[in-house]
Amino acid sequence: MSTDYQVAREALGARLREIRLSAPGGRLTGAQLAEKHGWNKSKVSRLENGKQTPTPDDLRVWVDACGQPATYDELLAKLRGFESHIRSWRRQLSAGHRPVQDVHNEAQANAAVLRAWESSWIVGILQTPDYARAVLTRFAELHKSPRDTEEAVRSRMKRQELLYNGGRRYHIILWEPVLRALICPPSVLAMQLDRLMGVIGMDTVELGIVPLSASLKIPPGVGFWIYDDRQVVTETWHAELWLDDASSVETYLRIWKTLQESAVYGADAHNVINAARRALASR
Predict the structure, then answer these.
(1) From CA 10, how far away is CA 21, in angstroms rounded?
(2) How far apart are CA 47 and CA 49, in angstroms?
(3) Which one of 83, 150, 270, 274 has the fewest beta carbons within 10 angstroms of its own beta carbon?
(4) For residues 23 and 67, is the Cβ–Cβ distance under 8 A?
(5) Which of 3-7, 228-232, 237-241 has the highest mean pLDDT?
(6) From edge to edge, which strands make up the β-sheet containing 169-175?
(7) Which DSSP string corresponds to 48-84?
(8) ∠ CA 180-258-86 to the nearest 5 degrees?
(9) What is the helix, strand, coil percentage profile of the chain, to 5?
């Protein structure tokens, strides 16, 4: 969890404590607040000390119990402020995977220059439907989220229309192990590799591959997207980070450009993909 996120959560907790201690009907103890709403006694302490992120419902219960409902909008704005940067998968996927795909569709549609680095799987904008289905199914199993896989696949495929609309340029770099990772059936991966070879030469996509034999100036790290050199989106196992502060964006741009120095393009990239395709066929 980022330091900025934790600081913001602690500040929200401190504000919750202020509201509890200044209840119009008299000071309300944490135990009284918990008992009144059937909470575990430790929940009040965790919220006030920034150890737990409140839900909007938690905030509503809190301000009503403390007799200060007018403070709800203020608290909700604070919560939305830091959650806009770190979006937990638990919350994002509570309604399924389709809404998350729609958010990314909009973000990419609003950008003109998009840079991506991926070290774990083929990026969504270049996935085949079967590959996308395999990846989304794996994540639904991991997060125990609602199974709206087909709707999510359709939304992800709709994003690919952006490749053909013009006015947009994708600069994508993949690490070679991505081409060989069997996170889907071999037949699906074979079709996916064929798709990648067909992307090379498109005027809207610059696809680079970092071979395993390449010298790396920095470790591969996790994948990320950069939109118009103003916003970064990256994923962890528990959350998705949307960063727009200048320092973070500058750091990710340096990372991307450093990794790009190890990438091959054009015919050389085609050869790396084709080698993975041949290796798959020989299994």
Answers:
(1) 17
(2) 6
(3) 150
(4) yes
(5) 228-232
(6) 86-88, 239-243, 231-235, 224-227, 113-118, 169-175, 205-210
(7) HTTSSPPPHHHHHHHHHHTT-GGGHHHHHHHHHHHHT
(8) 80
(9) 55, 15, 30
| H or E, element range at 160 | none
Report residue 54 as tokens: 């409140």
With tokens 């741009």, the residue in question is 253
Q: Which of 67-81, 164-178, 222-236 has the lowest mean pLDDT?
A: 67-81
Distance in Å from the first CA to the final CA of the chain: 41
Token couple for 177: 């192990």
- CATH T-level assignment (fold) for domain 3-84: 434 Repressor (Amino-terminal Domain) (1.10.260)
pLDDT of residue 190: 97
Q: What is the mean pLDDT of residues 144-150?
A: 95
Q: What pTM did the predictor assign?
A: 0.76
Per-residue tokens: 83: 């959650």
Cβ neighbours of 227 (radius 10 Å):
20
**Tokens at residue 184, please?**
């889907």
Give the distance from CA 108 to its chain's centroid: 13
Pick the CATH number of 88-281 from 3.40.710, 3.40.50, 3.30.870, 3.30.450: 3.30.870
Structure tokens at 70: 């007018």
Region for residue 142 given its phi and psi (left: phi exceeds 0; alpha: psi -120 to 50; beta: otherwise): alpha
- φ, ψ of residue 26 in degrees (nearest 5): 115, 155
d(CA 115, CA 207): 10
Q: Give me 243's structure tokens.
A: 């960063």
